[in-house]
């Protein structure tokens, strides 16, 4: 089952490599990874998505917790949560296609953030499936480049991951 | 406040941490540190002949005392040579602090001379590692390193020290911190009371219980607590090979050790039990055999300081995360307070069954082969000569298994072996580390002619520092364990499991200024050992030519359950 694990860790050099190293060392998969400092500059928030049986996920969270720089972590998929991913996608946009792409972007509530006479750059946020659906919808129209941020997530309601 | 250079702070921090000896080898990036070392007398340095041996010396000391061993090496090859020793310590949860020189900060990343990314290279095999970024943080980092190495589940910690951090011209205020706290690291200080009660309830209702005690009992200094609890309950105890001595091997309730080469009675008892009480053990593959066939009728209580060890390979019914000593104490007081007690009739029947297994195949069983000295009888003679009270280190292979099987350990910290990583070349330097700290104790390394050659250069270190360890070489003129597997699985095709051109050990040891004896006849075995151990001030190597055909038994059948074993070359149960 796909899981979203959200980690609060010391914002120190080398901490990220320990997390990534752990996954390769123990033969776990990382599907996506997003990391940046939090409002407290001594802490980083890292969100990763992975897949595995309950037993494997239990080991992953335990092994992550063992890393000295990991302060706290939560498996967001255990409760209700919000997840988002940001995509920037560059599309060939000429002639009649310009209007068609514009319409599709509107349907998906995306924004065209850069325009040339032949190219649209579209920004889109949503969960992974929505981004996939957009790519599929514009698929015939010439995708030039796709950049996805990886999943970020947060628990719904009062629940917070903080010190 | 005192003003010291980074190098001086490093050495002072070691002194203030209570470190007496460090083991190491100098080189460019570590020279400021070595200069500071030279200008004081508190911390003594032992110059090894290869950095790997420094880590094993520190490791042996740590295993015998529970205190972190300290290693000092230079950057690049000095640092990479410690890797096997660090991995050895890591696999067996041994506290160790490794101080590595590094090229100066401004050179890092430029492929400078003797530059290696030691933080990256060591990352998967350390509990933690860190780089010094400013000389003033050195005392804090040293304190942190010792705290991490020793607390919780112990392990090795590496500090990478760029050369400019120890430069003699910098001067900083020195104060050694009294304690260190980290918001991201809080090992459990006691087990969950409700879980402990559940476990005790299960013990009271068990009919066929086994206590399966690992190295965590030795590391957690909980031998007494384990022994008390086992005696109170009257339960059988089996140790892992890392846990030998954690429960007295000559105690009536001891079944010997378990697993691939464990005793018949241990493995049978485990397989047929209805309650496995795992204390500071980690259900290693060399213990469980195939996990899907492991102890089919047993419920499992698992006590360990490391939550990641619990339910990693075998699912625990009652997980208890906490220090083994305090958890065992709480269990014992609950057992003593309890109005219930285990069903004595069931327990009696269980013991009767276990004794029958023990009679069917004694854990001290082997057969003679003509006039050949059997490796087992060499260990038995060693046991008699040392009165069962030596610190015994071993290398890796058949001799390791024979030593573990035929030298019953009654005290913890006496059996020193690389159980997890299985590092050949470990035993001799480990013995040196112990002898250095405990010159009055008998320290003996049981080895083979393969393993001993993996760190034999340390004979020179022994001469320099006068370390009269004894080395017992079970010489079967082959890499015995490899050969055994080739006999069993590869139709005796001995691919590179023997060595031609073994050195003349007597001349070799003599060349290093030591003594060596050769034993080829059974009647010489014990007298020569007596003579060797009577030479208190000499390193003595006893080269015992043993039967070259002997295998280690029992041996679990690969892919089977715990009870599926070869008991001899022809008997499979």
Automatic annotation (TrEMBL), chain A:
List each copy of the ACT domain by range. Answer: 4-78
Q: Which domain of life is it from?
A: Bacteria
Q: Indicate yes or no for the key word Amino-acid biosynthesis.
A: yes
Catalysed reactions, semicolon-separated: 2 pyruvate + H(+) = (2S)-2-acetolactate + CO2
Pathway annotation from the record: Amino-acid biosynthesis; L-valine biosynthesis; L-valine from pyruvate: step 1/4; Amino-acid biosynthesis; L-isoleucine biosynthesis; L-isoleucine from 2-oxobutanoate: step 1/4
Q: Enumerate the GO terms in the molecular function aspect.
A: acetolactate synthase activity; acetolactate synthase regulator activity
The EC designation for this entry is 2.2.1.6
Q: Name the Pfam families for this protein.
A: ACT_AHAS_ss (PF22629), ALS_ss_C (PF10369)
Task performed by this protein: Catalyzes the conversion of 2 pyruvate molecules into acetolactate in the first common step of the biosynthetic pathway of the branched-amino acids such as leucine, isoleucine, and valine.
How is this protein named in the record?
Answer: Acetolactate synthase small subunit
UniProtKB/TrEMBL annotation, chain B:
List, separated by semicolons, the cofactors it needs: thiamine diphosphate; Mg(2+)
Q: What class of enzyme is it?
A: transferase
Q: How is the cofactor bound?
A: Binds 1 thiamine pyrophosphate per subunit. Binds 1 Mg(2+) ion per subunit.
Under the heading InterPro entries, the entry gives: Acetolactate_synth_lsu, AHAS_TPP, DHS-like_NAD/FAD-binding_dom, THDP-binding, Thiamin_PyroP_enz_cen_dom, Thiamin_PyroP_enz_TPP-bd_dom, TPP_enz, TPP_enzyme_TPP-bd
Task: Give the pathway.
Answer: Amino-acid biosynthesis; L-valine biosynthesis; L-valine from pyruvate: step 1/4; Amino-acid biosynthesis; L-isoleucine biosynthesis; L-isoleucine from 2-oxobutanoate: step 1/4
Question: Tell me, which GO biological process terms does this entry list?
Answer: isoleucine biosynthetic process; L-valine biosynthetic process
The source's domain of life comes to: Bacteria
Q: Which reaction does it catalyse?
A: 2 pyruvate + H(+) = (2S)-2-acetolactate + CO2
GO terms of molecular function: acetolactate synthase activity; flavin adenine dinucleotide binding; magnesium ion binding; thiamine pyrophosphate binding
Q: Which residue range or ranges hold the Thiamine pyrophosphate enzyme central domain?
A: 196-330
Keywords associated with the record: Amino-acid biosynthesis, Branched-chain amino acid biosynthesis, FAD, Flavoprotein, Magnesium, Metal-binding, Thiamine pyrophosphate, Transferase
Q: Which GO terms describe its cellular component?
A: acetolactate synthase complex
Query: Could you say which EC number(s) this protein's record lists?
Result: 2.2.1.6
* All copies of domain Thiamine pyrophosphate enzyme TPP-binding, residue ranges: 395-544
| Name of protein | Acetolactate synthase
Q: Which taxonomic lineage does the organism of this UniProt entry have?
A: Bacteria, Pseudomonadati, Pseudomonadota, Gammaproteobacteria, Oceanospirillales
